């Protein structure tokens, strides 16, 4: 089972944003060395604990610092961007790093309403039209009478990298299949089962120049430590962070020593109890077994792992232990 990395560029307590962005390159290099297939960067705005607001910059930086791993967006939140600009940006990246760039695209905005207003983000219901425009710019197939038909998209003679549609509810699955694109399901935060979405994607799939066959990625949240007990302890940072974030309390990821002693309200505890069912936490063998079980149940071709832990070194260790368990090279 191919494994990949989803990096949200977390900014834990006691770590500067500059240090957090430097950690991003360190993780990409580790993934490159260990045999992870790809590393993707999310697009989030207005969240101080997450530094990945500009994935194209992160992609360019990490691609230059690595040799073989694919580097991409997970994803470009299309409502925040004009399609022509996305095509220009990712053609440029593809030209600079041939065969190593991915373009993941999502239909959400990735932030709160006020921030999305400042971004001039459009309503997500326009996503199909935006995708059609993006593909028409890349493929040069606007109707002859379309006002955009004469536009020359530069850099010329460079195609967009492989495109993956991101989803968390299955709403975009069939569309991804009909367009002959890849599809990635966000099981790391969505409780909606992935299998129906993957089935809809495969049923609708039509081969394209980018994908001769469907390719479905399952994104999961996993934390690995030498023992299950240590992994559970380390996961308290994620649990408390999620509870505070969901209830509107801004707080960066705290050390597990502090998180384990944090008093949560009944509402926050209920949030953790519900969301933690989506997290895979344990020793290498148990995490490997659970990832394989979820991938098989969903019908995934690849698994993308995001790991939330306060210590950067322990985050690297988690990915290292997971790679060893799966025998990556």
Order of helices and strands: EHEHEHEHHEHEHEHHHHEHEH
Query: Any idea how many domains?
Result: 1
Strand order of the largest sheet: 1-2-3-4-5-6-7-9
> What does the main sheet amount to?
8 strands, parallel, barrel
* Beta-strand share of residues: 15-25%
Number of strands: 9
User: What is the radius of gyration computed over CA atoms, rounded to a whole number of angstroms?
Assistant: 20 Å
CATH architecture designation:
Alpha-Beta Barrel
- Total of DSSP H or I helical runs spanning 4+ residues: 13
Oligomer: single chain
Shape: globular
The span between the termini is: 12 Å
Helix content: 40-55%
Uncertain segments: none
